[in-house]
Design goal:
Blueprint (H helix, E strand, L loop, with lengths): L3 H17 L5 H13 L3 H9 L11 H13 L3 H8 L5 H13 L3 H14 L4 H14 L3 H17 L4 H12 L4 H12 L1
């Protein structure tokens, strides 16, 4: 079984040197910043990112770029997030690009990016949720949208994370769906 309490204690201990002003090794802080970002602790992620120093002529660390892209996405700058994430290859980079494209209102581009991601990581449920979310937003007719919603609901039920409920709620809001149902799904995503 997973020990979340012990993990959280370890994360707090790992963050302590940076919070005291000590500057730990940059690669470690990049990993810590990403871990905080993935947990939704954006302020802690930004603080960890701020401790990372880079040199002018050095090749940027891909993990630092992913943290920057994620923080820009969370900060409401999806186009910048997509631009930064485009400099990195991999599943996490593509997930950020898909989410950024959705947030920027580019559902068809998000769907194409998600399709490419699924060819590379077919078992990734997060990618499947994002793909179906983009499909709902890109659907032009009621019949296509209903079919896309059904596919999104199906994959959302298979996830253990709250992303599926978030995607369902956000898709309902964006498409003018039932406000009470959207509120319910979004509430489930934050509970």
């Amino acid at each position: 079984t997973e020990d979340y309490a012990e993990f959280l204690k370890s994360m707090a201990a790992a963050s302590a040197p940076a919070e005291r002003g000590d500057l730990p090794e940059s690669r470690f802080m990049a990993r810590l910043a990403m871990a905080q970002y993935l947990r939704g602790r954006l302020e802690a992620s930004a603080k960890a990112r701020a401790t990372i120093k880079s040199f002018k002529d050095a090749e940027p660390d891909p993990l630092v770029l992913l943290v920057e892209a994620g923080l820009n996405l969370a900060g409401g700058v999806p186009d910048k997030a997509v631009d930064i994430a485009s400099k990195v290859e991999g599943v996490r980079a593509r997930l950020i690009r898909v989410q950024g494209l959705i947030a920027a209102g580019k559902a068809r581009d998000a769907q194409a990016e998600a399709d490419e991601l699924i060819t590379r990581a077919p078992e990734n449920l997060e990618a499947q949720v994002m793909r179906e979310w983009a499909a709902v937003l890109a659907a032009s007719s009621g019949k296509d949208r209903d079919s896309a919603f059904a596919a999104l609901e199906k994959v959302a039920r298979r996830t253990k994370s709250k992303l599926g409920q978030h995607a369902l709620g956000a898709a309902l809001v964006a498409t003018g769906g039932d406000p009470a149902e959207a509120r319910k799904k979004l509430a489930q995503a934050i509970d």
